[in-house]
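Example pasted here:
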Amino acid sequence: MAAKRPRSRASAGNDHGNDHGGRRLVVVVAFDVVNFTALVEADEERVLDAWRALRRAIDPLISAGGGRIFKALGDGLLVEFASPVEATRTALAVQEEVVRSAVPDDVRLELRSAIHMGEVTVEGTDLMGDGINVVSRLQTHAPVGGVLVSAAVMDLIAGRIDQPIEELGPLTLRNMRRPVHAYAVGPMAHAVRQSKAAEAPAPGTLPGTLPGTLIESFQRRRPSIAVLPFLDQTAEGGASWFSDGLVEDIIAALSCLPELIVISRASVLRYRGAAHDPRLIHRELAVRYLLTGSVRRGGGPGSGLESGPEMGRVRLSAELADCEAGTLIWSDRLAGDAADLFNLQDELSARVVATIAPQVQESELRRVLRKHPENLDAYECVLRGLDLLYRLDDDGFNRALPLFERAITLDPRYATAYALAATCHGERYYQGTSADPVADHMEAERLSRLALSFDRFDPLALSLCGHIRSWLFRDYDHAIELFDRALAANPSAAIAWLRSSATFSYIGEPREARRRVDIGLRLSPYDAQVFFSYGLASLAAYASGDYAEAAAWGRKSMGANPRFVGNLRFLAASLAASGQFREARQVAHDLLRLNPGFSARKFAAGHAFKDPEMRLRFADHLVLAGLPE
């Protein structure tokens, strides 16, 4: 999980700070009438009448899908949506309506459509900027009657749109230096497939990718990098929360760039404290680039810098290696005052990006680099709390919570601290270890809403709060919206892929749930909390009725952390459902040792499964496992 920096005091009082100074993340659909100029030239009156009639038919469809027409051109429309799924469904519905329209054939109108997600500049009711330029140019590549979506949109609709999909690969757009990876969606995708089949692939190009192989498609489109924990030369033993947190912030900055795949911090902690062969990292994490380094702080105990001119100084050294070639690309050293830590991190991130992703615009890099606080106290509290959570000992949540609360006191608008505090309350409630379940439930609700009010673009806060909205409050639609926003902000956010998986299991879409677990495990294969990921795979299998697979994943989760009661519940149920009663009763015994007051029917009745029959079946399986009703 990425510990986002607190806002500076200078920005904390700005009510529009979360809109990035008049900017916001939106989904935009562009519709354009094919050959409109020539049609008008041939018969202006009848063509304009036909366009007005078509507008009367499609405008209600756009409104029903949650769209807002912010620009109506003579031959097309630009429409804003909040959800990429609803945008795609609406665009397909509009194209269906065009086919059904009863306009005479000699003036029949046809549309092209494209969909893109990105940040735009808000000017009153109008939207402008690079995101609008992309979608406007992308629609010119769409087949007549068809819909194209950018990769940013496809990443969020794959598995949720029951339509043919065909990958087009990178498209060169007029007057734009960077190509845009695009997909055709809907009935017209077959036309794209046929045209592609007629063309011999260019030498060195990769074959088309099925929508389900999303991870491999990511790897072909973007370079990948792992940032290993920096060696803290100030601390005894060569590792500390400070160096881990420093790397966490570098990962957070790099992860927000869509051109990069970034392995999560939790998966690289296993490499802490020792040098590693880049080729080994390449095999284990399937990444091309590796960033390693060290940090030394002045003034720390045993640092040898407690006095003199070095007091309060920070020194960073970093090396970037190409894992495939096993070669060093560059190494560098940075030094500055401790108060300038974030500037040093930003500069290091910029140098990495400039080396491995030269297509990233300088303006885009500035957008993802965080604002700097005037002091590090709140940030330090969050990093210390995260360090406790990753240790997985018996009382981690209770010891981490005061640190997150302290961070909130120091910076009352620090969204990450609120989201992590909400998670502590929610986990105590869910694990069955809460001394006051009602109070923890209410605090999880209050803190998660505050987190979203202070920062609507933080992937960590969005992911944690989305999970809370789903499993505590059964607010599935809002949860999915939050996950969509998290993945739009950071497509490499393993926590968003993983936490959203649970919601799709709850609502009866286990195939999509499993797909998201697979992507999350790819992005975070060695997470210290991988037991949680295995538990999510078990949940998806249980929701699909594959109890043997659910039990297999549940055993893996139990092997990684036998105290994770969320997994023990589904493992016991899966074992009982598959007739493995002896093992089911042993797991039930382990569960009751950790959660003595557990009641099978009470817990199942309050579970997040949307289908009441599913909740009843879950209760029956828990009872079959020997758990008290």
Observations:
- The domain at 20-199+207-213 is CATH 3.30.70.1230 (Alpha-Beta Plaits).
- The chain has four domains: 20-199+207-213, 222-362, 374-454, 529-629.
- Residues 7-21, 194-221, 300-311, 358-375 have pLDDT under 50 and may be disordered.
